[in-house]
Amino acid sequence: MNKKVIVIKVLKKFNNWLGAHLAYGLSTMACFYIVFAICVLPLLIERPQTLIGWVQSIIQSIFQGASLPVLGYVARSVGDKQERVIHQRHDMLIEELNKLRDDLDAAREENRQLHGLLKEIHQSIKP
Q1: Do 36 and 78 meet the contact criterion of CB atoms below 8 Å apart?
Q2: pTM (two decimals)
Q3: Are 68 and 26 in contact (CB under 8 A)?
Q4: pLDDT tens per residue, range 66-115
């Protein structure tokens, strides 16, 4: 294999690993609290003097910095709920499929018995 291809595969694997860990880490509530503290602490040290300054500080710090981890957390929790629902539906469908297979086996057995009975009737009717 070419060295370039190997390097590309290794980089893709590393990028996937890093992306998964960063996505998880940045979507935790702990990250939210850290980012929120980092955004609010400067406001405690140097307060804006005007209404426009306050609005800009709130928009920059709260909405841009602190809301992103919350959005990631919400998206992850919704994804977890959807995954649980999908697994429940899968389990229900597998259970229903197994019941149908059992019913089909019972119907085949009954059909086989009826064919045997029909043969006996035909043989008893023949002179």
Answers
A1: no
A2: 0.47
A3: yes
A4: 677 777 777 877 888 899 999 999 999 999 999 999 999 999 999 999 99
Cα 100 to Cα 87, 92, 108, 114: the distances in Å are 20, 12, 12, 21
**Within 13 A of 4's CA, how many CA atoms are on the CB side?**
0
27: burial class by Cβ within 10 Å (0-12, 13-18, 19+)?
buried
Reported as a single tens digit per residue, the pLDDT across 34-73 is 877 887 787 788 888 888 888 887 777 767 676 777 777 7
Range of the domain at 99: 3-125
CB 5 within 8 A of CB 53: no
Residue position matching structure tokens 């503290």: 37
Our count of domains for the chain comes to: 1
